[in-house]
Amino acid sequence: MDPIRCVIHGSFRKHFDAIQKVYELFTAIGIEIIAPKQSEVVDIRGGFALLEGEENLDPRLIELMYLHNIKQLGATGFSYFVNPEGYIGKSASYELGIAQLSNIRCFFQEPLSDHPAYIPKNAVWSPESLAQYVVEKGELPKPQVKRNERALHRLWEDLVVPGSVVAAGAVIEYDPGHSSDKKEILLVKTHKWGGRYSMVGGKVRRNERLADALLREVKEETNLNGEVGQHVCTFDQIKNSGYYRAGVQHLFVDNVVRVDSKRVRLNEEAQEYLWIPADEALAALDIEPNARHTIELYSAVRA
Predict the structure, then answer these.
(1) d(Cα 57, Cα 292) in Å, to the nearest integer?
(2) With a threshold of 0.70, does the pTM exceed it?
């Protein structure tokens, strides 16, 4: 298993002793602390706390060097904000913005009181509680979204836009098991596509494997458990499909996902669903262009 790495944030000027205690606690359970280093605050310049060895450096350089530590966290890494009484401070506020835009997991000692940032449910943990969870589970707590904050969460996710967006799409396939019956695929109807039918799928998260993203999207959108099958196609955005975003390269990677149940429970992303043989779907349904492209290729192989 990859090591769990952490960057600790907070006001060095006000809460450096508390930050060092978190450092010691996390290190004791095997979390690798990338920053800050174990040191002492040796000077305060313009309200900015300087550690040993930083006395002659430009504070802007120090802050940028600290931000570069976030890039080293990887898929299992996280930022932890030491914010007694909710106070986060100016520098830590800047660091929070960069961490969130980089899609880094962020945890907080207490709810924010001096900052309007959106933070998902299950993001506030005392250092002791978080350390205990990691020891018991061997991983970080999973992110959660409050039902009444889903719109906020979507807006927040939309800010995390890399140069390329990879979407994993699933041709969800059910085999009745009888030679005389055709295999059926699951299509969903959604307002996002103007009431047309499409496939289940979504964005691959940073540091997430394609297969994991595919099964996650299937579970979230349909409550079905599946097994990833053959690759169907990979392609750029279909021209005039209605999903174009200027300045973003959008790639679709579509695979078969085999399921052994037709008991679908949709989440809020779709309004209707339909099980239907692929050739019949192509002949009878209004299917959005990207999904139609994939289903045509899938149907040709199955013919």
Answers:
(1) 57
(2) no
